[in-house]
Design brief:
Shape of chain A: extended
Oligomer: heterodimer
Number of domains of chain A: 2
Distance between the termini of chain A: 45 Å
Number of strands of chain A: 10
Mean pLDDT of chain B: 69
Structural class of chain A: alpha+beta
Low-confidence stretches of chain B: 1-17, 219-223, 417-434, 460-470, 714-726, 864-879, 1059-1092
Helix content of chain B: 40-55%
Number of strands of chain B: 31
Low-confidence stretches of chain A: 1-10, 349-353
Number of helices of chain B: 39
């Protein structure tokens, strides 16, 4: 491109610091004298943090049970074999018995975990209609094409909620029973099924369509439930604040996981006697076994976990911090040695350039 | 009406492929011959590339020839047609942007060219039609038109001089813009038409001219003294009439003009190379991924689990086709490893960066009141890569003005201006002297200076005012003569002019002396001297002769030589042009004889030249040597320093000039291109001699020189740079005709051999001087060097139109905004006012730009290796600005130090920073960091609840974490590499991080109605509420930055080791670095810049 200096009478260029490339500048030099303390400090800080993280992660208790029902692994195998090759599998229930010798420090969270389930598959991940889920009536009738083959039912009705993610909603259910005294009666432990989804998801992103004559069912008239569902979306829960698209189980499920092995929050235990945790005693989890995972050689697990300030049990962060911290210090030492040796040399060969 | 064919224009030319017949005034020559209007091209000059209607398709075609653009076009098309994870907008928009910006830029440039063309094409000329002067636009001139040209106008096309306003039909012409020689040349009108000095008479002329078809070689037809070339300027003659023979694109100038082709810089070439490597990686990656996909899908429950069934259409798609589309969509997914934003940024960097060149105050020249000019912004970094410098001499190395320096009379030296003399004033006092010669001899000498020349005096215009009215403007075909006359004037003898055949000289006593000019024995390059014979007022007849020492010494008394020879040799060593002055008294009866002989010779019709020469030879004998003069072809300010600096920077400087060999040689000495101890190898017509065995002789010389050089440098190229400092230096001189002998003796088998031998010799010489070059030959040389092994980067610098072809041919063309018009600067890539500016341009700007752009490019290839596709759009904003600021402002070494130590330049030559090593380093670094990011987050996500409220995080959080780490790492890495923190850097680096955070909040904070999927909703805010994620981000950023940090620290340790404690302090404050410690420091500084 051509230009001469602009038409300022004289063609002399501006004599400013910027144009002459003489802006005042800071010349940081990351010299050894700065970097060495930095490395040591960082190393120490990291080790400290790492220790903290490691111990708090270790302090977290986890109790897990694989209820997939592989042959010979407890009573859920009955359900597993019963559901083999049949879709949808017949309803079946099984139970998991465990006992706690001491208090399971709360608050306790109940998770289910699936393995080998690719929620991050692209075709799967896009198979949803966010505007339908935000309650837009027009989208309710006309789901986006990404939802195919779960866009329209065989009868030609639009599916609500459409798409593969919704269709594959996890539909096992659990209830927890506590036996305070041996041979005593089992008391149901209250599970808080609300507040398990992101606040924004539950309150903003997911909305039911506007009610018709005060009825959600009428609002959904003319739509079909996803083919794998036993009941329509407006009957997911009797609680009007927890049904339809804003059913919290559904909302949690719709937030697709990053890895093929993932956990999703099922319930929180924080009510009544159990707000401090699960007291010692025998427990039984009643499992309604619906969800077929053996078809894709997946596993289902049930997990009770407590939680610290840093989230669930994950030793990785602590170990990583410890490792990096010690590496830092090691490198610091190596550099110190190199540095000193060079300096010695420097004094010896002052004029050897 | 007479008819005459001017056959001589094509005489001597064997390969007369075709001749053209031009009818003067487009009148048929005779009634009998049917007048057939021949088709010649019109007088329009076209240097522009596009027209209005072909701009779009042609420009698009040009742009898509660029490999990257084509690639992105393909990607875009794939995205449009195939179902892919990313929207076509992500690649289409940047592509569109790039194309548009480039198209606008090129369109604007072409518009400027159109305008420049129009300026030339629409200029007014006067044409004689039907005995009237008709005003016309230049482009309307047809072959055969009679054109009237007035003083100081340029010729609008190639003309044959019919008549001029002078009686003898001569006119003076300067061809400065054609071959760089600014002196006036005399051209003669065709004998038969001299008398036709009026409009009417010239219109009545009926004639036909037969001349050869247009040819490019300037010197082949510059000979005919009636041909006036387009581009030359009429001087000193009121007006002339000429008939147009070649017009428009067929003129010599246009034929010597080469089309402007797009220049690519070496950096761009390596970008393209990287691009291909990455393209290969991309293809491999896509192939591997496709394979893996199908391996994974081979288990049925992975291919189509019950929760993720395919549509009917998907099931029915043909498998191979599906695989292919899968492959394509993987390619699109990964296409971000080839960064489209890089091209935008690189363009911007170059464009904005070039402002710094035009802004630089050091390039500002008071005289022409202009700074540097940047025509092409594409080549900034190329300035840092130059291997060969080709420079013009006249107007580039020299100011093109001669200055009288000193003289010696009878062995006594007179030097300088009269200031430090013993109280005698300049005008009436004698010469400043060391020891004085006889007063009479002095005066004789000065009179000789005043008389022995062909200078004409041009009376000053009254416009100049009273103050300058005493000044006389001298005009001459040789600037030396002007210098001599002016020199004499300085010492009190002023040449006032010629009147009625009397030369008038004002002597020291302000008296006018008149001398009758009897004969002028003209200068020619064979005799290398000239003489005048004058008759003094007292009736004595004197002959004054001046000429080169070799031409004069044999013709004077021997005893006089010795005294002066010392001075002459001394002056020659200093690079001055020396001339010796001799005189002789001719007795009246001798003169009678001489006079007769001279007139006879002049009248001779056959062998006139030879006869005259013989007579001259006889006359100029037994002269008395009076003295010698030294004239300096004044070099441009700091030209010698610049050349020395360039030499020190490892550049090879070649001088290509149209001038005579002697002149050029002395200039080369003066500007220290040749040192006094440089051994010169000459390949000129003189050494080869005009003989039958030209080629054999040439062959002999070539082999001899080669042997010599090979002996001298046993180890060849590798140790060349070192060898220069240790061995005898060699300089090569070659002239145009020899060069064409070497290059064009193509028919016989040995020619290639010559060429390669010649090149070998050239490579081994420190300096090469090529004289008597035609513009195209200059370009030929440049092309020859350009095509050498290793394709070195060439730079040409020149000021005249004769340099244009060379400027266009080389990688980087630099024009000097000199006195010889603007063609050069208009066609160049950069234009500076003076040669000395080359030093800073190359050493400082070039170096910096190179380092900057190299970093920029590497950074870009490094940056997006793990780029989340959905964030491309704003990726451009986040990470491009800091690197752009960096690449504009970074000065890893201070400018002052760069200019003062040219050795640094060597470090970056050969594209050192964009070689495989650094490239691999960056790629592996990027791969390492990508791994760290991914697996770090992966392990973190082993448990999905990362919050104290136990809620789980999903897919998009995963991506966002990685992307956040990426943005921070990449930006902070840049911060680590920045060694020159101005407030702009601060603003941009921290600003872009802040902007990233802000944008993420904003992007995630609102449900965007136009998006199909609200997947980013609130992810970022939610993410930041987790402590674990914070900790992970910090850790991973630290880990991925640590190799870079380590590297920097190690470097600084090493640096410490190589510098003394004293300089250590000063290094940290490099602005105040004293020159004394510089070399030491610089080496280490540049070491580190080399690591990249």
């Amino acid at each position: 491109m051509t230009w001469s200096a602009t038409a300022r009478g004289a063609h002399q260029p501006d004599n400013t610091a910027f144009t002459q490339q003489r802006l005042p500048a800071w010349h940081p030099l990351l010299s050894a004298s700065i970097a060495l303390p930095l490395f040591f400090c960082a190393g120490l800080a990291f080790i400290g943090l790492g220790l903290g993280l490691y111990y708090s992660s270790n302090g977290i208790k986890e109790l897990a049970y694989d209820y997939t029902g592989d042959p010979g692994t407890g009573n859920c195998s009955v359900c597993a074999t019963a559901g083999q090759g049949r879709a949808p599998p017949p309803p079946c229930s099984c139970a998991w018995y465990f006992s706690l010798p001491e208090l399971f420090q709360g608050p306790v969270y109940l998770y289910y975990e699936l393995t080998n389930f690719y929620q991050n598959n692209r075709r799967y991940g896009v198979s949803r209609d966010d505007s339908q889920l935000s309650g837009l009536p027009s989208s309710l009738r006309h789901p986006v094409n990404e939802c195919a083959p779960y866009q329209y039912s065989a009868a030609g009705l639009p599916i609500a909620p459409c798409g593969a993610i919704a269709n594959s909603l996890f539909n096992d259910s659990f209830s927890l029973w506590h036996q305070r005294q041996p041979n005593g009666p089992y008391v149901e432990v209250p599970l808080d099924r609300t507040g398990i989804a992101w606040w924004t998801d539950y309150h903003v992103k997911f909305r039911n369509p506007p009610l018709v004559n005060g009825s959600l069912a009428l609002a959904f008239r003319g739509t079909a439930p996803p083919p794998n569902w036993h009941r329509p979306v407006y009957e997911l829960s009797p609680d009007p604040n927890n049904t339809g698209f804003i059913n919290q189980d559904f909302v949690v499920w719709m937030r697709t996981a990053a890895l093929p092995t993932f956990r999703k929050l099922y319930a929180r235990i924080r009510q009544g006697n159990y707000s401090a945790g699960l007291p010692r005693g025998a427990y039984r989890v009643n499992i309604t076994y619906n969800y077929p995972v053996r078809a894709f050689s997946g596993h289902k697990r049930l997990i009770f976990s407590s939680i610290s300030w840093m989230g669930g049990k994950n030793p990785f962060l602590g170990i990583a911090y410890l490792l990096v911290g010690s590496l830092c210090i090691f490198v610091g030492f190596v550099m110190l040695v190199v540095y000193i040796r060079y300096q010695d040399q420097n004094e010896d060969e002052e004029d050897d350039e | 009406m007479f008819r005459r064919s001017f056959n001589r224009f094509c005489a001597g030319e064997e390969k007369r492929v075709g001749t053209r017949t031009v009818f003067v005034g487009n009148h048929p020559v005779s009634e009998t011959e049917a007048y057939i209007a021949q088709k010649f091209c019109d007088n329009r000059i076209i240097s522009s590339k596009y027209t209005l209607w072909n701009f779009l398709p042609k420009n698009l075609f040009e742009q898509f020839r660029r490999i990257a653009n084509f690639y992105f076009l393909i990607i875009f098309l794939i995205q449009v047609t195939v179902d892919t994870p990313t929207s076509p907008i992500t690649s289409g928009l940047p592509l569109f942007f790039v194309i548009t910006v480039t198209a606008i830029k090129q369109g604007y440039e072409d518009w400027l060219r159109h305008r420049a063309d129009n300026e030339v094409n629409k200029s007014t000329v006067y044409i004689i039609e039907n005995a009237k002067r008709v005003k016309k636009e230049s482009e309307k001139i047809k072959v055969g038109d009679i054109v009237e040209v007035q003083a100081d106008e340029t010729f609008p096309c190639d003309l044959i001089l019919l008549s001029s306003c002078t009686v003898d039909g001569t006119c003076y012409v300067t061809t400065a813009s054609l071959d760089g020689e600014s002196n006036c040349k005399t051209h003669y009108a065709v004998r038969d038409t001299i008398e036709l000095r009026t409009v009417e008479s010239i219109d009545n002329l009926r004639a036909a001219i037969e001349c050869e078809q247009p040819q490019s070689d300037l010197y082949k037809s510059l000979g005919p003294e009636n041909l006036l070339l387009k581009g030359a300027t009429l001087k000193n003659t009121k007006k002339i009439y000429g008939v147009a023979v070649y017009t428009g694109m067929e003129t010599k100038m246009a034929l010597n003009y080469q089309g402007k082709s797009q220049k690519r810089s070496a950096v761009e070439k390596s970008i393209n190379a990287f691009l291909i490597v990455y393209l290969f990686i991309l293809l491999t990656k896509a192939a591997i991924c496709t394979t893996l996909k199908y391996v994974w899908q081979s288990t049925p429950y992975n291919d189509e689990p019950w929760y993720n069934q395919k549509t009917q259409k998907e099931r029915e798609t043909w498998k191979v086709l599906k695989m292919f589309t899968d492959f394509l969509s993987f390619m699109v997914l990964f296409n971000f490893i080839i960064p489209v934003s890089m091209y935008v940024t690189v363009e911007m960097q170059k464009f904005l960066g070039s402002f710094f060149i035009s802004w630089d105050n050091d390039f500002y020249d008071e005289e022409i009141n202009e700074g540097a000019l940047v025509n092409t912004s594409d080549l900034n970094e190329e300035l840092g890569q130059v291997d060969y410098v080709f420079t013009d001499k006249t107007g580039t190395l020299t100011e093109n003005s001669m200055e009288f320096i000193e003289c010696c009379i009878d062995g006594h030296k007179y030097k300088g201006v009269a200031q430090e003399t013993d109280g005698l004033s300049q005008t009436d006092g004698p010469l400043p002297y060391l020891d004085r010669a006889d007063k009479n001899r002095e005066e004789l000498f000065l009179r000789a200076l005043c008389l022995c020349h062909t200078v004409e005096v041009k009376p000053n215009d009254t416009v100049d005012g009273v103050t300058e009215s005493s000044e006389l403007t001298y005009m001459s075909s040789s600037p030396d003569e002007i210098a001599l006359v002016k020199g004499a004037k300085k010492y009190g003898f002023t040449f006032v002019g010629v009147q009625n055949g009397y030369m008038r000289v004002e002597n020291q006593r302000k008296e006018i002396e008149e001398y009758e000019l009897l004969h002028t024995l003209n200068f020619d390059s064979v005799r290398r001297r000239m003489s005048v014979i004058v008759k003094t007022q007292s009736g004595d007849i004197l002959l004054f002769c001046k000429g080169a020492d070799s031409a004069v010494f044999p013709r004077v008394q021997n005893h006089e030589i010795d005294l002066i020879k010392v001075h002459v040799e001394h002056n020659a060593m200093e690079g001055y042009r020396t001339l010796c002055i001799a005189f002789k008294e001719i007795a009246p009866d001798d003169y009678e004889r001489v006079n007769r002989q001279l007139i006879e010779a002049k009248m001779a019709l056959q062998d006139r030249e030879e006869k005259m020469e013989k007579v001259f030879d006889e006359i100029e004998t037994d002269m008395h040597l009076i003295g010698a003069t030294a004239v300096e072809d004044k070099l441009q300010d700091q030209a010698a320093e610049t050349i020395e600096a360039l030499h020190a920077a490892g550049l090879k400087v070649w001088v290509l000039t149209g001038d005579k060999m002697e002149t050029a040689k002395s200039t080369c000495y003066a500007c220290r291109l040749f040192q006094t101890n440089t051994e010169l190898l000459e390949l000129t017509t003189k050494t080869i001699e005009e003989s039958e065995r030209k080629e054999d002789r040439l062959h002999e010389l070539l082999t001899e020189y080669r042997k010599k050089l090979l002996r001298e440098f046993p180890k060849s190229t590798r140790s060349l740079k070192k060898a220069w400092t240790e061995h005898q230096e060699y300089g090569l001189i070659i002239d145009g005709s020899t060069l064409s002998l070497i290059l064009n003796s193509s028919q016989d088998s040995g020619s290639n051999n010559y060429r390669s031998i010649f090149l070998q010799i050239c490579m081994k010489c420190t300096a090469v001087l090529c004289c008597r070059m035609a513009p195209l030959q200059k370009a030929q040389i440049v092309r020859m060097v350009k095509n050498l092994k290793g394709s070195p980067i060439t730079l040409s610098i020149g000021d005249g139109a004769n340099d244009v072809s060379m400027i266009l041919e080389s990688h980087v063309g630099i024009g000097i905004k000199g006195k010889e018009g603007r063609q050069a600067s208009r066609n160049s890539d950069y234009a500076v006012p003076k040669f000395k500016h080359l030093k800073k341009l190359l050493l400082a700007h070039g170096h910096l730009y190179y380092v900057r752009i190299a970093h920029l490019v590497q950074y870009f290839f490094y940056k997006p290796l793990y780029d989340a596709a959905y964030l491309t759009m704003y990726n451009i904003c986040f990470t491009s600005l800091p690197i752009l600021a960096y690449s504009l402002l970074e000065q890893h070494i201070n400018i002052d130090t760069l200019t003062s130590d040219p050795r640094l330049y060597m470090k970056i030559s050969g594209n050192a920073m964009l070689q495989l090593g650094p490239f691999l380093y960056w790629t592996f670094l990027a791969a390492f960091e990508g791994t760290v990011f991914f697996f770090g987050t992966y392990f973190l996500f082993q448990t999905t609840s990362l919050d104290e409220n136990g809620k789980v995080y999903g897919n998009w959080t995963f991506g966002t974490i990685i992307f956040t780490i990426l943005v921070f790492t990449v930006t902070l890495k840049l911060a680590l590499d920045t060694r020159f923190w101005t407030w702009i850097n601060h603003l941009v680096i921290w600003g872009s991080l802040a902007f990233y955070v802000f944008f993420s909040f904003f992007w995630g904070g609102i449900i965007w109605p136009f998006l199909k999927q609200q997947r980013m909703y609130f992810i970022f805010a939610q993410m930041l509420s987790s402590v674990s994620i914070w900790l992970t981000i910090i850790l991973l950023i630290f880990v991925s930055l640590s190799p870079e940090m380590l590297r920097i620290v190690l470097r600084s340790v090493r640096r410490r080791s190589t510098r003394s404690n004293l300089s250590c302090k000063k290094a940290s404050d490099s602005l105040s670095t004293r020159p004394s410690v510089r070399p030491l420091l610089l080496r280490t500084f540049s070491d580190e810049s080399n690591i990249f």
